[in-house]
């Protein structure tokens, strides 16, 4: 097979360039679209730039300049993404905080990150106000939802008004600010299962490299639905920054409950999701077909489509128009990351005319390591390695599987204020991911599981529980599953056990009674 040909991508050296590039090329194109009450609001590239500068002006004039740490917590919104882009485009450090963390963990992250300001939704204002004595570094609380200031909280609208006034007066402290490309720019806290989450230190060079080299492999279209939380780098970097580089329109999904209705409202051409969404869509399509008595027709249509495609005729979008209309009618691509996906799901969407592209990333790599392409799309892999990265397999077993290690310009500086944890995973500039897998002859990554989850049976056989869980999940009656080892009296792993949670809707329809 011919060697994969990477896309040509216009190089940009700064995150601010992602916005100014859009202002120069397509100033009136909508950069963001979102709902405000019953209205749908469009914000052009030129207006986004003005908003970013206004917010940056306000922070700079209040003394937040030169590497200050600014935290943000809340639901996906235009105000959130404006805060994110404004901070990244200046010389401060952005600290996204997981909105689902317990109160004490939120306090811990704010303190550990040395954040001096925090922007937040109304529900978090009380947390900061009530714990202000425990937050010695915090100097400013900004409320997204309020229209007026209080004794403790400044409204986002106040900052924007201050910043726009400064811009009209020729204030240029923010617009002249620049940080070193290799200095800390984005401080992202990983969700740890035990103890304090670690702060991953990413630089502007890390982020720009991820965007630039990611686009060498990825295919991005004109409009996306932005669904996943903005505190995840998968969404904030791989979707937001990548889409801005391509001058796409980003439609903000305000809640997971309205994903399907927003697909129909905004009619995006691509969306980035975790595999659970693709699995849900897949099951709903088949459940709907079965309920309406059209499952046989769907299966026949897939067979016909496969035959026609072999002779160069592609009528998938017409043949499966009803399904496409469910997703808004324009959806061409679902990019999945965060976990493996069953190959039959990827194949099904390919059969009906929607590319499912699986990618692999980890926050410590900014986060993208590999992603599949419509040109070379193997559902059993996690994608083609970005051309700037060197991916090796440490200590491979007889099957060639070992720990995936990454070296290149997307690898983090280290963990914030945690040299011990950094030294465990970052060795001579090589990041040890903790994921087990191998690299194929076509330069695609295959991930089998996590190193810490590996089960080694008494007979020496290596078992990756994630692979078995993925297989069991293909059974319609299974909703969730956890695979673990069975040990003998000496602690040796001698067998496997699977604990399953049934899909009651499916079992009731089939007359299955579970004990």
Shape: globular
Q: Provide the spatial order of strands within the biggest beta sheet.
A: 2-1-11-10-12-13-14-15-16
Number of strands: 26
**What is the C-alpha radius of gyration, as a whole number of Å?**
24 Å
Q: What is the assembly state of the chains in this entry? A: single chain
**Low-pLDDT stretches:** 456-461
Distance between the termini: 52 Å
Tell me what the structure shows:
- The protein has 515 residues and is an alpha/beta fold.
- Helix content is 35%, strand content 25%.
- The protein has 17 helices and 26 strands.
- It has a 9-stranded mixed β-sheet, with helices on both faces. The protein has a 5-stranded parallel β-sheet with strand order 4-3-5-6-7, sandwiched between helices.
- Strand 13, helix 14 (343-352) and strand 14 (355-361) form a beta-alpha-beta unit.
- Helix 7 packs across helix 8.
- The protein starts with 14 loop residues before the first helix and ends in a 5-residue tail after the last helix.
